[in-house]
């Protein structure tokens, strides 16, 4: 992608971006007289790796719907929020002005991308998840080029902006942490379902540009890699607190159809309860989480959720009901986050102004 962006910038982004987007939506063969740099990139992208199994990925997409709203809370409170302790990753957000963009918009855009990727069929060529992932990959490359050229980017300490380690951490949040968190909150995912979700996100991360040596074939590899990745991250700093405190109040800014004051504060309390249950004391202090919150939500909801889902799975149509109900819950959550406006990932304004972009998560 970095090589492709070099060519796109030299040839003029206003001319090359439409070619890229056409190739994303319709395939490289739909770009008449496609320039060689574009053809080289998409010839790799459109040839899936040997290990990819489309049916297994489809099974993983359906399994992502099993947890419904619980899965959304896991991604936010066990994936996104603890990740703000990694100050090197935060530095890109600081320098691109993403802190001023607002936590609510970051959560909404990341959630939309995740849901697009995890709808059944969402990662087929030309589908919303596939297109959104390649738009995000382009934005990552533009931001990487922009931030790396800044005088106040300390490459000796922070490394390359949005580097392999950063993207690997995001990939693990959406796969390994997602699976761990769901099970801890009472969603009884089977080994087969966990493997299918892992396979789906292995492909999404490959499409995003994560090197194949960092992609994991099973959950155990992912857990070990998560531990190693966390050890390699720069420690928390003031940006961790700023991002953490902004995310705390994000539920108050959602677009509730009724009782917004009550529902905003209830959701804020639920998210804080989950975070206090699974983030250690040092992490909570680094993120600026308020003290004294009790783990009431996991304790009260995980056991009945486990019993309910286990019971339904024993019924003939119970498993299918859980998937469809969960998918509907996740779609409704998008409406709460965006209200009446749902911008797509990678808008024209974002691509033209990389100084205003962020990466998912």
UniProtKB/TrEMBL annotation:
UniProt domain ER-bound oxygenase mpaB/mpaB'/Rubber oxygenase catalytic: residue ranges: 92-293
Source domain of life: Bacteria
Classification via InterPro entries: Lcp-like (IPR037473), MPAB/Lcp_cat_dom (IPR018713)
PANTHER family assigned to the protein according to its UniProt record, in alphabetical order: ER-BOUND OXYGENASE MPAB_MPAB'_RUBBER OXYGENASE CATALYTIC DOMAIN-CONTAINING PROTEIN, SECRETED PROTEIN-RELATED
Protein's UniProt name: DUF2236 domain-containing protein
Organism: Serpens gallinarum
């Amino acid at each position: 992608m970095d090589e492709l962006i070099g060519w796109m910038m030299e040839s003029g982004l206003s001319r090359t971006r439409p070619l890229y987007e056409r190739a994303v939506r319709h395939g490289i063969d739909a770009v008449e007289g496609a320039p060689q740099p574009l053809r080289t990139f998409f010839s790799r992208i459109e040839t899936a790796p040997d290990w990819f199994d489309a049916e297994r990925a489809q099974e993983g997409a359906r399994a992502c719907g099993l947890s419904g709203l619980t899965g959304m809370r896991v991604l936010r409170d066990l994936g996104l929020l603890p990740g703000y302790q990694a100050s090197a990753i935060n530095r890109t957000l600081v320098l691109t002005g993403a802190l001023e963009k607002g936590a609510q918009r970051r959560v909404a855009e990341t959630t939309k991308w995740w849901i697009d990727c995890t709808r059944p069929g969402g990662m087929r060529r030309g589908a919303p998840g596939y297109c959104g992932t390649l738009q995000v990959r382009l934005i990552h490359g533009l931001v990487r080029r922009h931030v790396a050229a800044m005088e106040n980017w300390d490459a000796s300490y922070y490394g390359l902006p949005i580097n392999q380690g950063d993207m690997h951490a995001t990939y693990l949040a959406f796969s390994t942490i997602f699976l761990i968190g769901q099970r801890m909150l009472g969603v009884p995912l089977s080994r087969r379902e966990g493997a299918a979700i892992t396979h789906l996100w292995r492909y999404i991360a490959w499409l995003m540009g994560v090197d194949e040596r960092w992609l994991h074939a099973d959950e155990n590899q992912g857990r070990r890699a998560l531990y190693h990745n966390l050890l390699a991250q720069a420690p928390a700093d003031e940006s961790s607190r700023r991002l953490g405190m902004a995310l705390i109040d994000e539920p108050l800014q959602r677009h509730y159809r009724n009782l917004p004051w009550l529902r905003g504060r209830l959701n804020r309390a639920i998210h804080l309860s989950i975070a206090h249950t699974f983030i250690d004391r040092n992490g909570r202090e680094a993120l600026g989480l308020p003290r004294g919150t009790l783990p009431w939500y996991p304790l009260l909801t995980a056991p009945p959720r486990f019993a309910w889902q286990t019971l339904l799975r024993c019924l003939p149509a119970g498993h299918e009901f859980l998937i469809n109900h969960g998918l509907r819950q996740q779609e409704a959550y998008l409406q709460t986050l965006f209200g009446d406006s749902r911008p797509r990932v990678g808008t024209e304004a974002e691509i033209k102004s990389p100084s205003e972009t962020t990466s998912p998560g």
